[in-house]
Amino acid sequence: MMTFNPERWYALSSAGRGLCWLLFTLMLAGLAWWCWLHPQRLQMSAEAAQISLQRQHLTTRWREVLLLKTPDDARVDDHATSSPFSPLDFQITDAQLVSWQPAAKGGTLVLESAWQPVPGVFALLAQQDMTVTAFTLEPVAGRLRFTLQLEPNDAR
């Protein structure tokens, strides 16, 4: 950014300073005249900026609301599509069922898997109307031992 050097201003002749003031005044008058002739352009650009800000605000608020949505809210939407729980459903490509210990309320499911299928296990349990009350992940021979304590949703 250039700084104003008063020595250059004072070094100009009075006619030079007058010419600079005249040019500056004409530029300001031309800008004012253009704004007076085209007020709708300025208004439209201000409205467009306001709409853009409102859209950004709504997008931000929507993301916050999505973060607040609980699995129970999602389950109400697709309750009719839930399938019954079966431990054999967890015998998938990257995960192996190690054991299933049924209990009076749910049971304990033990899987050996890689990292990738872990979130999918929770999604599958949600589809089957099962709640995870506790879980542990521990490394065993280069894989993960994934132990889940489960309860059916209606048993809570």
How would you describe this structure to a colleague?
With 156 residues, the chain is an alpha+beta fold. It has 2 domains: 6-66, no CATH class; 84-155, Gyrase A, domain 2, CATH 3.30.1360. Helices cover 49% and strands 24% of the residues. It contains 5 helices and 4 strands, in the order H-H-H-H-E-E-H-E-E. A 4-stranded antiparallel β-sheet has the order 1-2-4-3, with helices on one face. The longest helix has 30 residues, at 39-68. Mean pLDDT is 82; it is low at 73-79.
Q: Which terms would index this structure?
A:
156 residues; alpha+beta; Gyrase A, domain 2; 2 domains; 4-stranded antiparallel β-sheet; 5 helices
Give the helices and strands, then pairings.
Elements: H1 6-11, H2 14-37, H3 39-68, H4 71-77, E1 95-103, E2 106-113, H5 118-127, E3 130-140, E4 143-152
Query: Would you give the CATH topology of the largest domain?
Result: Gyrase A, domain 2
Instruction: Describe the strand arrangement of the main beta sheet, using strand numbers.
Output: 1-2-4-3
The percentage of residues in β strands lies in: 15-25%
Number of individual domains? 2
What is the overall pLDDT average?
82
Second-tier CATH architecture of the largest domain:
2-Layer Sandwich
CATH class descriptor of the largest domain? Alpha Beta
| Rg for CA atoms | 34 Å
Give a count of the beta strands, DSSP E runs of length 2 or more: 4
User: How would a crystallographer describe the biggest sheet?
Assistant: 4 strands, antiparallel
Q: What class do helices, strands and sheet pairing give?
A: alpha+beta
Helix-residue proportion: 40-55%
Number of helices: 5
Low-confidence stretches: 73-79
Quaternary organization = single chain
Overall 3D shape: elongated
Separation, N- and C-terminal Cα atoms: 68 Å
